[in-house]
Amino acid sequence: MSALDTPPANEGVAQPYDQFILFGDSITQMSYNQEVGFGFGAQLQEVYARKLDVINRGFSGYTTAHAVKIFHQFFPSPQTVNVRLMTIFFGANDACVQGHNQHVPLEVYKENLKKIIQHPATRAQNPRIVIITIPPVNEYQLEKFDNDKDTPHPSRTASLAKTYATAAREVGASLNVAVADVWSAFMATTGWTEGQPLAGSRDLPNNEEFSGLFTDGLHLTSAGYRIVFEEVIKTIRANWPDQDPETLPMIFPPWSEAPK
User: Fold this and answer.
1) Which end of the chain has fewer CB within 10 Å, C or N?
2) For residue 225, what pLDDT is reported?
3) Has residue 5 been placed in a domain?
4) Is residue 2 domain-resident?
5) Adjacent-strand bridge partners of 57
6) Is the bond preceding residue 249 a cis peptide, omega within 30 degrees?
7) Is residue 79 part of a domain?
8) Are the C-beta atoms of 19 and 53 separated by less than 8 Å?
9) Which H/E stretch holds residue 197?
10) Residue 119 backbone class (left: φ over 0; alpha: ψ -120 to 50; beta: rest)
11) Mean pLDDT of the chain
């Protein structure tokens, strides 16, 4: 057999796609849910098809206190696969009112985000990280959501959501990590400016357009997920234009260029 006839050493060995891991709570877990429409996870999976594997690691009900304990159990080593991008989308449960069993104090929330970002497993992969701020909440819709749960009432407030979103931005700034400011993007749909009463709070009448972003005041509709998707893509393009799904090359060539 000549050298030309010798197959490459890696022929027949699977070459896994690089991964884009979505790490978060129920808002991440449900981002593929057909009942709410096209969630941000499904949208990312579509635009990165044949370019990256988008992996859903959303855990309903989890806080950052849970996240720091399980992270090392699922996050792959560089010997297994390369993690190129990762979103960290926690806080919707941490931001429950004090006394709620999911509440995580603000400073602990910030420290937990830092622990995930600075974890040895994260450092070994050195992925491009996007912190996603929590969205606002709608207290009017949350009333029914809370009535269906065995929780303090209200479980969450618009002002607490703002505080935890600000904290996520502060963590990003302190560690030079990119932030997709979903909270501000949601508020922008109402024309809100700093100093005004918060949309979704009891300080204002219920805003029907704002309500349309949520299924229950906390979880998101297709319209809400569209905002999350757009903010994540905008953040990726601003920080790593070479990872823009519109310009990232496919792993295998188009059918017209595939080996015959």
Assistant:
1) C
2) 96
3) no
4) no
5) 23
6) no
7) yes
8) yes
9) none
10) beta
11) 91
